[in-house]
Design goal:
The protein is an alpha+beta fold. It folds into two domains: 305 residues, 2-Layer Sandwich (BirA Bifunctional Protein, domain 2); 92 residues, Rossmann fold (3-Layer(aba) Sandwich). It has 18 helices and 16 strands. The chain has an eight-stranded mixed sheet with strand order 1-5-6-11-10-9-7-8. Strands 13-12-14-15-16 form a five-stranded mixed sheet.
């Protein structure tokens, strides 16, 4: 007996209905990307390993899917290295490529390679899958889509304000109310680390702090201690974990707490300016919240950082995020090109919309008209009718075989088809067809030569 097939953990098959819902989200995001002036690009699913390694921090590097060299990938490995079982030493001998971890680093590589063809500031959007060797769980997959928008070559805070507006526009169009967009600044985090005496442990500090919503304050403190951050430094940082008041109040508290850090105060003022611009422009549904524990562990962020959280009551992590990176292209030899970008988490947004029942009902209507098959001559006439309907933009089909009417109507019900057309011997003789409304059960006869009348009734 053949073994039942399976798919790798953290991946999924998508049914037609799921694809329709995913496309609804993608098309909504894409529409707003283009309305905001972003241009589409695509990059390969895999990159040279050296392009990706070292760009996401130690934890990110561990989650990169490496691709074994083709052929006998152990051929170039010397016996000593092989027997030593040192994966770090073995890696460059057996793999040269990897599946992309995100879309931002490939985008930086793209900008450097195509810099002479681009107009700066360059605004791009990209909607493609990425892969991470993470532990699968609800809302976290090993293969998933990212929907990114970035602009490089502009340092103005107006770009950050535009991304806030973009988040608001997309979530409003999707009917998502109560989405909270958390904001922080890497310079604020750097200032905090400096003030508490942990400046040399900035990366360890931010990686641990970024887990606040996952492992809680006690877990963060424990991880900081494990990373060598002193108890005295942690004690100084604790008041920052629970800043109270509205955004203006938090800005004021940060100004006082970071008096001894020039970089920290610069980050505070940039956040204050961003809040002021956003208040002037206004928001429809999005709620802005300054969250000093937001760190976003990726090392390439240098300025404002964003993270969008699902509405209250929905058990889901972030559904979007991003930030400012002042010199990401510098890792590929193109210096001093500032950039900022955000990403929408398609898969998590899908789960949130599903849980809240926000998908439009018409997405289930994949077929608008089904013609019943009464036999060879009737089917030929019905095929001509279907062709005309399709040319008019109607999603129409003919049942492929002369099956029992009950079976054909059952198929129409299962496909949630609103109209079934009957073109039998009698209708063929009179040059007409009967349209049955599958919801009301009412039937109406139309002339084959006057199709517009039926199209108006659809």
């Amino acid at each position: 007996m053949a073994q039942k097939p399976s798919i790798p953990k953290g991946t999924r098959d998508f049914s037609p209905g799921e694809v329709a819902r995913r496309n609804y989200i993608i098309n909504t995001i894409k529409q707003h990307f283009e309305t905001f002036g972003f241009l589409p690009i695509e990059t390969p699913s895999f990159e040279n390993l050296e392009t990706l390694l070292g760009k996401y921090g130690e934890e990110g590097d561990r989650l990169i899917f490496k691709i074994l060299n083709s052929g006998d990938f152990l051929d170039k490995v010397d016996p000593h290295t092989y027997q030593g079982k040192d994966s770090a030493a073995l890696l460059p001998m057996i793999t040269e490529k990897a599946l992309r971890y995100d879309l931002t680093v490939p985008f930086a590589r793209y900008v450097v390679m195509h810099q002479n063809e681009l107009q700066f500031p360059f605004k791009r959007y990209q909607i493609q899958p990425v892969w991470r060797a993470d532990k699968p769980q609800k809302g976290r997959f090993r293969e998933f889509f990212q929907c990114d928008a970035d602009v490089v070559g502009a340092q103005s805070l107006l770009q950050e304000a535009e991304f806030v507006q973009l988040y608001d526009a997309v979530f409003t169009s999707l009917g998502l109310k109560g989405v909270v967009l958390k904001l922080n600044h890497r310079k604020v985090l750097s200032g905090i680390a400096q003030i508490i005496g942990a400046g040399e442990k900035l990366i360890d500090f931010t990686v641990a702090l970024d887990k606040m919503d996952k492992i809680g304050q006690e877990g963060v403190v424990r991880e900081m201690k494990q990373k060598g951050i002193s108890e005295e430094a942690i004690a100084k940082a604790k008041p920052l974990f629970s800043l109270a008041g509205d955004n203006d109040d938090k800005i004021g508290q940060l100004r006082r707490l970071l008096q001894g850090s020039e970089a920290g105060l610069q980050g505070v003022e940039e956040l204050a300016t961003l809040f002021k611009i956003t208040e002037s422009l206004g928001l429809d549904e999005l709620q802005l919240q300054l969250d000093v524990t937001l760190a976003r562990g990726l090392n390439y962020y240098t300025g404002t950082i964003f993270e969008a959280s699902a509405p209250a009551g929905v058990a889901m992590g972030s559904i979007g995020g991003g930030g400012r990176y002042d010199d990401l292209t510098g890792i590929f030899g193109m210096q001093d090109l500032s950039g900022v970008g955000i990403s929408f988490g398609l898969d998590r947004i899908y789960l949130v919309l599903e849980e809240l029942g926000l998908f439009p009902e018409e997405l289930d209507r994949t077929l608008e008209v089904l013609c019943v098959n009464f036999g060879a001559s009737e089917a030929l006439a019905a095929s001509r009718l279907v062709k005309k309907l399709r040319m008019a933009g109607v999603r129409a089909d003919l049942y492929p075989s002369e099956a029992k009417l009950q079976k054909q109507f059952k198929y129409a019900n299962n496909r949630k088809v609103p109209f079934v057309l009957l073109l039998g011997e009698e209708e063929l003789a009179s040059g007409s067809f009967v349209a049955k409304d599958m919801v009301s059960g009412k039937q109406h006869t139309y002339s084959l030569d006057a199709l517009d009348e039926f199209l108006e009734a659809l």
